Amino acid sequence: SSDPVRRGDLDGVRLLVTAGGTREPIDPVRYLGNRSSGRQGVAVAAAAADRGAKVVLLAANVDESVLAGVRDRGAVRVVPIGTAAELEAAAHAAASGAEAVIMAAAVADYRVAEVAEHKIRKEDTAGEAPTLTLVENPDILVGLVRGRRPGQVIVGFAAETVAAESDADDELLERGRRKLARKGVDLLAVNAVGWTEGFESDANRLYVLDADGRVAGEASGSKREVADRLLDAVRDELRALSH
Ligand code: CTP
Ligand code: CA
């Protein structure tokens, strides 16, 4: 990093970062997906590498144009991911070798119970709109927390929609704290998303909550700036746990 305060402060730290959004197949040509572009997670991977970390980046359906931000960094190993099930297997395999895990990916909460082997055709559904039966995906983050190695720092993300009113930040933090308690993570990055906020843009704004629900950091700016601020909290947490 060109930033003298942060340069090398993650030297040798092995980091697992997930980014993007999983896609759950419906049939060979269709899927259920979400709007996550992977930009925030990729920015975390790039910033961490610049600060000396060795990063495994599990990239769920992230465009090559977004991944260009880490392709030139030897310290980042990119693993392409499709579904939540693939992400779960890859995350468990990679987590055992990581001092910190940053779960920025948007994981589909549900998948289609029975994926059709062939394309669903109007001709075959006799004018009736088909009904998709969904089943819940495992919570990957909760699984990682359960299997964590001693001293490992685990960070979750919470993208929440809130009413666009003056107390929107209170609602955001309140939702974040409830999620924090459910997940058992060390840090939770909480940000507001909506029809016009959070996704395709290069800007982001988030709070970092510590395990007790206190605001450990607040960042707003480019996704890179936000990434650096989040990594400051991860670095501090790693230091606290190693003492
Ligand atoms: N997450 C996960 N596995 C899932 C769902 C979510 O690992 N099946 C992780 C996400 O990567 C993120 C965190 O959990 O780091 C919070 O995701 P979010 O979707 O906000 O939480 P959910 O528990 O799914 O709650 P909600 O009903 O608000 O979607
Ligand atoms: Ca969810």
Query: In what order do the strands lie side by side in the largest sheet?
Result: 5-4-1-6-9-10-11-12
Tally of alpha and pi helices = 6
The value of Rg in angstroms is 19 Å
Describe the biggest sheet?
A: 8 strands, mixed
**Secondary structure: helix percent:** 25-40%
Question: What compounds sit in this structure?
Answer: cytidine-5'-triphosphate, calcium ion
EC number: 4.1.1.36, 6.3.2.5
Protein name: Coenzyme A biosynthesis bifunctional protein CoaBC
Cofactor: Mg(2+); FMN
Organism: Leucobacter triazinivorans
What does this molecule look like?
The protein has helices at 39-50, 64-71, 84-95, 140-146, 168-183, 223-241; strands at residues 14-20, 24-27, 30-32, 54-60, 76-81, 100-103, 110-112, 134-136, 153-160, 187-192, 203-210, 215-222. The chain has six helices and twelve strands. It has 243 residues and is of the alpha/beta class. The longest helix is centred in the last third of the chain and has 19 residues, at 223-241. The chain is globular, with a radius of gyration of 19 Å. Strand 4 (54-60), helix 2 (64-71) and strand 5 (76-81) form a beta-alpha-beta unit. The mean pLDDT is 93. Helix 1 runs parallel beside helix 2 (64-71) and helix 1 crosses helix 6. Helices cover 30% and strands 28% of the residues. Strands 5-4-1-6-9-10-11-12 form an eight-stranded mixed beta sheet, sandwiched between helices. The two termini are 26 Å apart. It binds cytidine-5'-triphosphate and calcium ion. Cytidine-5'-triphosphate (CTP) is lined by residues 103, 105, 107, 109, 137, 139-141, 156-159, 179. This is Coenzyme A biosynthesis bifunctional protein CoaBC. It comes from Leucobacter triazinivorans.
